[in-house]
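QUALITY CONTROL LOG
STEP: pairwise intake check
CHECKER ROLE: data steward
CRITERIA: each record must contain a sequence immediately followed by its C-alpha cells, with no blank fields

ENTRY 1 OF 2
RESULT FIELD BELOW
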Amino acid sequence: MIALDVRSIDSVRSALANLAEEQMPYAMMTAINSTAFKVKDALQAEMTSVFDRPTPWLVRQVAIAKATKQNLSAVVGTPEGIKDMYGNNTGFSRFTSSGAYEQIIAPHVEGGSRLLRSAEKRLNKIGVLPPGWFAVPAPDTPLDQYGNLSGAWWIQLLSWLNAMTWSSQGAAQNRAEKTSKRKNQLERKGIQVFAVAPWGEGRARNRHLYPGVYLRQDKGGMYAIDAILLFVPKVIYRARFDWRGVAERTAQAELPDAMAAAVQRAIETAR
C-alpha cells in the first residue's frame, strides 16, 4: 500500500492555498453577482407584466449592490434602500424622503393604500385636499403614454391653485413670475382652474360638483366645466407584485449553476 500526502508537496500546497484564499472568494463573488443580475432582470420583467405601462424610470429603480471578495453578499433592491444600508441619505425626490419602493412599489407588493405624492401634499398644505384623501385623474383626463397625468399638467394645476413652492434661491417676485407664466399657458387658451374641496367655501359654491380640480373654459359664449382630478377618501391596491417570491425563486434556480461554473473556472485557472 502506498500512502500519498499532498501536504508535503510545496507546489500542491501553494496551489491549494491560492485556490482557497484568492480563487474561491473571487469565484463566489462572481456567482453571487451573476445571480443578482438575473434576479434584477426577473423583477423588471415582472414589473412590466403586472403594471400598466410602467415608466422606464420606475423599471430602472431595481438596483444592485454587488458583492466583493471581502463581502460575499449582493443586494437587489431600490436605490434608496441600498443607500440606506450603507448609512447614506435616501431620497425619492427633493420634496419627500420616501423612496421608490415605499412610494410606488410597496402598495402593489403588500396591498393596501399608498403614500401621498408630493403634489398631493401640496394640495393638502393649502387646505384643498383633506388629510388622508387622494387626488386621482378624472375619467376623461388626458394622460401621458404611461397612463399618468403629466408633470407639465401637474405644475400648471398647482400654479393656478397657488400650491407651488420654489427654491429659496429665488426672490418672491421671481416665484410670482414663474407661477404667473404657468398660469398664462392656460389663460391663453381661455382656461381657468379651480378646486372643489369636500367641504368648506369651495364646496359651498359648487355643491353640484364632486370634490376635485376642474377646468373652466369659454366655448363660444358657453362655459364648459371638466374635471381633471377627483378627490377620493381612499386608494386601495391589491397585492399583485410578488417581489420577494420572484427574487427568491430566481436566486434558488440560478445560484447553483452559477456557483458550479465559477468554481470550475477557478480550478482551471488556479496557479
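ENTRY 2 OF 2
RESULT FIELD BELOW
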Amino acid sequence: DREPIGTPGPELASGMTIVARGAIRVAAPVLAIAGIYLCALGYTPGGGFPAGAVILGVALLAYAGFGYPRVERALRPSLIEAIEIGGALAIIAAEVLGLVFKGTVSANWLPLAPKETIRAGGVLQVFSGSELVEVATGLTFVVFALLRLRHDWARDEDPGEEF
C-alpha cells in the first residue's frame, strides 16, 4: 500500500435523502430524551453507562444522516475532551465530598428523597449523571477518532491473484 496513513479518502455522499434526514430530525431528540431518562430515573447505580451509549447512538445517527461535515463542529476533539474532563472531575468531586462530609470516600452525603423520585439515589444519582457525561464523551471521542482516520486498512487485492 503506497498511500500514507492519514491520507483523506473520498467521501462519496455527505448525507442521506431528505426523507431519512427528516426521520432523523424526529428520532434524535426522542432518543436523547430516552437516554437522559435512563440516567435520571434508573433507580440503581449504572444508569449513566447505558444513557451515555444512547447519546453516542444519537451522534452516530446524526453522522449517518447528515455526513461528517455537518456534525464536525459539535464533535471537535478539543470540545469533547474538555467535556469529558468535566465529567471525570464531577465523579471525583462526588466521591471526595463523601470523605469530607461523612468521613468515607463515596459515602452518601446527600439526603435521600422518597422512593421513585429523581433524588432517591442520593449521591448515586450525581455519580450516574457524571457517568453519563463521561461515557457519552469517551465513546464519542473514540468512535469519531476512528471514523476520522479515513484510511482503508485492508490489503489491496492483486488483480492477478486468485483465492
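INTAKE CHECK: passed for both entries
DESCRIPTIVE NOTE, ENTRY 2: The first helix runs from residue 18 to 40.
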